[in-house]
Amino acid sequence: HSARARERLQRVGIPVVETWDLSERPVDMLVGFSHVKVGSAIAGYFLGRGWQRVGIATGDDHRGGLRRDGFLAAMGRDVPTAVVPAPSSMALGRRALTELLAKDPGLQAIYCSSDQLAQGVLAEAQARGLRVPEDLAVCGFGNADFAADMQPSLTTVHVDGAAIGRRAAQL
Q: pLDDT digit string (tens) for 96-110?
């Protein structure tokens, strides 16, 4: 979204459809969702379950950061956070849980900015003998193809990427 790129795209005169995010000033058209609202909704879910000792495992990417910001705003306070380099992976999820438990061994729930991080968090929790979700609840983002087949299955946020793609193609 640099000024130069925006100018070049507008000058070419072809339709530009941005996807997967919301922007205050789209180049042309936009089909996406608010990552901030996603984070806020997850925090609302955690609070509704009564979980106060919560943590965040997030990648250092822009969208993961927006979801983290929404989560923290809805929680109304800072929470233990592990920031790992993008792209997310199972190994980084395991590392994130290790870091989070060092900050607060009594965590009740962890929000992960991706299902890949959540997969690693689940693996590390199981390696430590933690029962999921009884001892530690885990929520991911993205509804990856493996999420439902994990043991236990992963709680995750589903975004209908196919519908976003279809709408973008229509535009």
A: 999 999 999 999 999
**Mean pLDDT of all residues belonging to the chain:** 95
Output the CA–CA distances (angstroms, integers) from residue 110 to 26, 28, 168, in the order listed: 33, 37, 33
Cβ–Cβ under 8 Å, residues 155 and 138: yes
Under 8 Å between Cβ of 13 and 146: no
Q: pLDDT confidence of 67, banded at 50, 70, 90?
A: very high
Q: Which two tokens stand for residue 167?
A: 């709408």
Dihedral in degrees, nearest 10, Cα atoms 157, 38, 73, 114: 50
Q: Record the tokens describing residue 2, joined without a space.
A: 């640099």
Length of the chain as a residue count: 171
Residue that the structure tokens 């209908």 belong to: 160
What is the end-to-end Cα distance of the chain in Å, rounded? 20
Cα atoms in the Cβ-side hemisphere of radius 13 Å centred on 34: 11
Residue 101, CA atoms < 13 Å, CB-side half-sphere: 14
54-59 and 81-84: which strand pairing? parallel
Give the orientation angle of helix 115-127 with respect to helix 90-103, to 10 degrees.
60
pTM of the model: 0.91
Check: CB of residue 122 under 8 Å from CB of residue 138: yes
